[in-house]
Amino acid sequence: MNTTARISTFTAIPEPKRERGRQRVAAIMDAAVEVFSEKGYDAATMTEIAARSSTAIGSLYRFFPSKEALAQALLRRYAQHVSASLSELAEQVERLSMDGLAGALVDFMQALQSQRRLAVALIDARAGNDDLRKRFRTEARAGVARILQRAIDGIAPAKANAMAAVLLHLLKGIAVAADETPAMQAVLTGEIRELVRLYLVAARREARG
Amino acid sequence: MNTTARISTFTAIPEPKRERGRQRVAAIMDAAVEVFSEKGYDAATMTEIAARSSTAIGSLYRFFPSKEALAQALLRRYAQHVSASLSELAEQVERLSMDGLAGALVDFMQALQSQRRLAVALIDARAGNDDLRKRFRTEARAGVARILQRAIDGIAPAKANAMAAVLLHLLKGIAVAADETPAMQAVLTGEIRELVRLYLVAARREARG
Amino acid sequence: MNTTARISTFTAIPEPKRERGRQRVAAIMDAAVEVFSEKGYDAATMTEIAARSSTAIGSLYRFFPSKEALAQALLRRYAQHVSASLSELAEQVERLSMDGLAGALVDFMQALQSQRRLAVALIDARAGNDDLRKRFRTEARAGVARILQRAIDGIAPAKANAMAAVLLHLLKGIAVAADETPAMQAVLTGEIRELVRLYLVAARREARG
Amino acid sequence: MNTTARISTFTAIPEPKRERGRQRVAAIMDAAVEVFSEKGYDAATMTEIAARSSTAIGSLYRFFPSKEALAQALLRRYAQHVSASLSELAEQVERLSMDGLAGALVDFMQALQSQRRLAVALIDARAGNDDLRKRFRTEARAGVARILQRAIDGIAPAKANAMAAVLLHLLKGIAVAADETPAMQAVLTGEIRELVRLYLVAARREARG
DNA sequence: AATGAATGAGGCTTCATTCAT
DNA sequence: AATGAATGAAGCCTCATTCAT
Fold this sequence. Notes:
Chain A is mostly helical. The first copy, chain A, has two domains: 13-65, Orthogonal Bundle (Arc Repressor Mutant, subunit A); 71-209, Orthogonal Bundle (Tetracycline Repressor, domain 2), CATH 1.10.357. Helix content of chain A is 81%, strand content 0%. Chain A has helices spanning 3-9, 17-43, 46-52, 57-63, 67-92, 98-124, 130-151, 157-176, 182-208. In chain A, helix 8 packs antiparallel against helix 9 (182-208). Chains in contact: A-B, C-D. Chain A binds chain B through residues 38-40, 42-43, 120-121, 124-127, 130, 134, 158, 162-163, 165-166, 169-170, 172-173, 176-177, 179, 184, 187-188, 191-192, 194-195, 198-199, 202, and chain B through 39-43, 120, 124-127, 130, 133-134, 158, 162-163, 165-166, 169-170, 172-173, 176-177, 179, 184, 187-188, 191-192, 194-195, 198-199, 202.
């Protein structure tokens, strides 16, 4: 690795240009996540996002040519994250009990926590992005449906899809619970987990007919 | 012409003032529900709300001193509606089977449909109203918890409360499903209903120990 | 006339609402003429127009919903003015000698002077208003062609039209000369007048064959 | 391959530097003509001019320290071009009939066509360059006046000057006609040519007394 | 009390210009 | 000398709110 070599020149050459740009973009996106999450799409201002990421407003617009574009980029990133997480989970499904799967799904949602509020802000609060929203939902649903199909032998595809929709909604409850006291949060998470398990077990029973 | 007649009573009784005011307020709130629902809190404009309710903007501000105040009033009205519905449901609980209760809860949420979008617009999309939101949640939760306590003998108050929270979230899924095709909507509603029933039955089993 | 009557109440009731609005609009348009003339369409700013007419920027936008709309209104007003002037001239044509007509045309252009710079600013300097510009030109040309047809017996319509175009351009020279010293201005105006006369006479000779 | 050969001379003569610079400047100016012509001074952007000439924005600013400076350079080049054309024409004047001169003047203007739009964009659309504009006019006028003096024996210098001004304006009509249909364009050009001839002949008659 | 014209802060976005590399 | 990322002033426009009528 050339890491060592690099460090030696680090002070001399602050940063390879491209790297700087990447950091800029990352800083902007992080700030955007914060601001959009806190205020919602409309109330968030580009000026504040620029300020929080210590970026000049003009620079922000070099990377994201509009507020909408910034929101979309965030949403895309989130969608990819969700997709990846679900794919990963799908691989492990065969090794999991119904109970284990319930836990895994809850964990999956908990890991999304911080970004979740953002997605809500961007998806729920806006007009005109119905397309993106729908694509996003469809994808997530498909991901969960795939997991269900592996987890529950003989489940009808339509049932898996409907179930996936309900499960995703139910799991969202975990993120929503973020406003509660930590104690309450734990209780609710447990409750949801149990309900997920119930749901899975019932579906399996039904599938086996 | 009745002009003369009118004039004679005009100064004396300029029309039951209170009544007129109430109508105005109602018209404004209805228009506000429409506009907030369609566009979300931020994108809704006071001017449009005034126009849709055929109210002069100045008059609107006489009744509601700010956009925020108008939103809060709407939210309060919604909260009362929810409370009342839940109280009503609570009265009927004893006559219902577990299955019947599941159906009743789903129906309750479906009846809220139209106003639901509004509440989402006002609650999700905004910062700074955490207080109102929390009070709102607490109330709804208490209402459902009361129902559960009546429906499930021996359920622990804490459990009833947690369950109420999860149930409410789950039921919200019905409103969210509003964006789906009617067919999918029906499927999802059925799925949720079944899951609610499962949840109730399991809770009863647990309560009976 | 009710002028006298009005004056008596003038101080008491500053202005019938509508009248106020009309004054506002007039003030704005006058300021806009100034600013557009001085700087051209692009460089002119709505803020400056508002300031020069002592209007709040918001009020300006109440009357003219965009910079473009303001420009169009100005252009329309100018077009009407030109049309009216030409119509008036057309009525007098029969009473005029060729020399008199040349003078009248020059006078017509001189009367337009101040607004001319504006039209140049709005027409020449902008993209996207080709339509308006063309309509404007066509109208002015038609107006002059009508005059020529009355002034020169037997002139072919096509010839009248072409001549009108050239005449209008030639007369524009008077407005352009506005940047010269007064002395030079007078000389140029005379020169143009003479050339117009020459043109008319030659056309008549040709028409008579 | 000549790569080797090149390398050998590379350090010694990094390409005739001056030549490279000149090419760069030329490329920039050509791109600038395009962009200014298409969009007008204000709407044209330095970034686009840089891009169209494949120049880094920083390099552009090395050669032209401001947008204004670039515009002035373009105008200067145009002025020189006009001057040169007029000088050339002046040399041939003695060999031309009055009719031939009219044609030559029209041709001269037609040859300017493409650059004409530019000059309009730069001269008409902007404030603050009155100086340059005046100098430009004076020069062009002087050039034409010189031609007139050669073409018309005994013409008074003042008359030649005034006539030059009017002639130049009249000829501008050819450029303005660029927006018309080709057919109309031809008609107008012919009409203008005839009027120029008329003007010249009349001036000669007058000069001869 | 009702009306709606007026106000101006503030949002999004562009682009001439600078400056670190 | 060349490059292009960074800067921030400034433009257009919206809309919550006020206030004269």
